[in-house]
């Protein structure tokens, strides 16, 4: 390991160490300028601060400095990227219906592939601009990703049924968005229903501190019917507006890194992972490490099952070629050779075994203490 401290990494990254301490604190880790960072921490920090972690900084201790500075982005390489949006809200308030409506109305009919099966993320085009939607299976996935420090959502669409109002999971969603520091766009749904009361939703949300713009707040509210499509285009325009203010950027000119959105074992194809690319450009035969899994991509497809040669920032892709199934929320990183990827995965696996062994011996010490 590199034995790099917070202060040393900050210096190499040309950042203030307080920024790194704050970032680690948000992940639940207390640190000081002298704290030695784990390899995982270094990776997460690099990702968070737009530093490309594409060359392994861990293995060769002699030229750490040069390698890290290689990863630091030049401002001039950053280009704007599409926003990544998560729809959250209470059970039955219309998340799935909205995702389906958006997807169906923004895919050209007859397009090759068409809409096939469920995929954890997809991208649509709105007035010529792209928006990526994450179809997170629920709050748990969001929490798991956050716990790993993988911040992947730029905007939360908070969906509230106008015939039901603010409910427990509505509040939970607000908390998630706040903890992640992500702006909220409110979709007041089911306005086609007889019992719909959008005014009530507005005042209930205002009570939670989510204040409509027309009442002097920061949040855009859009009335929609996810079922019949009314207002959905307005919602998409509002998302683009918020995204524009965020000035989201990424560097497409580097080896790719990002986050696993979902993964499963397919009987015929082996481990299949949906990846969200956050930095760099992913190429069809790239070698990557994901947690302790690794492999060379055998096939890369988009959300419509079309095969891709390359994919850039904010693109969701499905890949096969990993040796095992990674977890949602795992960070993935491309390395410049298969050999390197295998080495890193192996060293992570070893560390994991060592950690588990240490945990076991700690437990038996406790047991012994109890016996005395
Ligand atoms: P969970 O995944 O279980 O949390 O629910 P969800 O938020 O995904 O809700 P879903 O999209 O499954 O919608 C729940 C029910 O509300 C379904 O029967 C939908 O058809 C209905 N629904 C969703 N949007 C609308 C709408 O705009 N108008 C009306 N009338 N019904 C809607
Ligand atoms: Mg649903």
TrEMBL record:
It comes from the Bacteria. Residues 83-231 are annotated as: G-domain. Keywords: Cytoplasm, GTP-binding, Initiation factor, Nucleotide-binding, Protein biosynthesis. GO terms for cellular component: cytosol. The keyword Electron transport does not apply. The keyword rRNA-binding does not apply. Its main location: cytoplasm. GO terms for molecular function: GTP binding; GTPase activity; translation initiation factor activity. It is found in: Cytoplasm. Belongs to the TRAFAC class translation factor GTPase superfamily. Classic translation factor GTPase family. IF-2 subfamily. One of the essential components for the initiation of protein synthesis. Protects formylmethionyl-tRNA from spontaneous hydrolysis and promotes its binding to the 30S ribosomal subunits. Also involved in the hydrolysis of GTP during the formation of the 70S ribosomal complex. This is Translation initiation factor IF-2. It comes from Ileibacterium valens. The gene is infB.
